Amino acid sequence: MLRIHLGDADLAAVRVAAAPNPFWEIATSLHRFQTRDGRWAYAGWLRAVRLRLREKGLERALRTILLPLFPRAAYFPDFLTPGQGVDGLAAGCDAILETSPRRVAKELARLDRTVGAPPWTARLTGLEDRRELVRVLRAYHDAVIAPYEETVRSRFDAERAALGRGFLDGGVHGLLGGAGPTIRWRPPSLQVDFPPADRELRLDGRGLTLLPAYFCWRTPTSLADPALPPVVCYPVRRDATAPPPGHPLADTPSAPLAALLGRTRAAALCAAAGGATTGEIARAAGVSAASASRHATALRDAGLITSSRHAATVLHTLTPVGASVLRAAAHRP
What we know:
Blueprint: E1 2-5, H1 8-11, E2 14-16, H2 22-32, H3 43-55, H4 59-69, H5 89-98, H6 101-114, H7 127-145, H8 149-176, E3 183-186, E4 189-192, E5 199-202, E6 208-213, E7 221-222, E8 231-235, H9 255-261, H10 263-271, E9 276-277, H11 278-285, H12 289-301, E10 305-310, E11 313-318, H13 320-330
C-alpha cells in the first residue's frame, strides 16, 4: 500500500489532470500484454492491436524494446512517463529527449536491480539512442493508442466530471473520497492499493495530481522517485453494463435507447450522465461542436438535460427525467 500524507497546503493543491497523458496510457497498455488479469475487459482491443502491430512491423520492437522497459512489476523508469505528456505526445517526447543522462542512468540502474534490464538500455543515456526510443514510442502510440483516442478522452472526461461533482458536493474531501475503490481517503492520508511493498510519501506542500487512465486496470501506479511532482495514475471508472473496449458497440448507448433517440442523441445523453461540456459531448458522439450543441438543445427542450454556463463553457447534466431514461435503458430485461 502507498500512503500519501497530505498537509493543509497539499489539500489546497490537489488537482485532477487536465487531459489524458499518452505516456501513462502507453505504459499501462503495455502492462495489458503482460498479464491475464483483466484480459477479458480488453479482449477486443488486444486482438485488434496485435494485428495492427504485426501489420506495422512493430512486433519485434514490442518484444525487445518496450516490454523490457515497461515491466508490469515493482518499477519502471520515471522518465518514460513525463508530466509534460498532458500537453500532447510531442511535448512528452521532447521531455524524454531533454532528460539528463545522469537521471536516465540512475533510473535504468534501478530497473536492472529490480527486475533486470537488457544491456542495450545503458546506451539510452546517449541522445541518439533516446531519439530512436522516442521514434518507437511514437510508432507504438500511433498503432495502439491513437485509434482509441476518442474513447480514452471520453472516459477521461467522464471521470473528471465525476470527480468535479465530488468536489462540488464535499470539497477536496469529496474529491479524494471519490477516486475509486482502490484509493481511500483516510485523513490525513490517501491510501492507495499499490503492490508489492508498503510505501510512505510525504508531499510537504507540493500538492498531488490525480491522473485517470483508460488502460490502467484495478491497480493504481505512481512515480517511484519521491522527489518528482507527486502523481497517482489510477483506473477510470467503468460502466458495468457497457461492452468491453474493442467491441464494435463499446462506448455506445444501448440499442433501445439509440432506437428511441437516435444514436448520436443517445450518446449525447450518456455523456451528460457525468456532466459534460459541449466539446466533451462532441467527442463522445463523434460529431462537430455545432452538431453537439444542436443535440444538446433538443435534449434540453425535451427536459432530459439541463445546461449552465461557466465562463466560456456550457456544462450539461441530466435532469431527474433524463437519469430515469438512462436507468431504464441500462436495466432493461
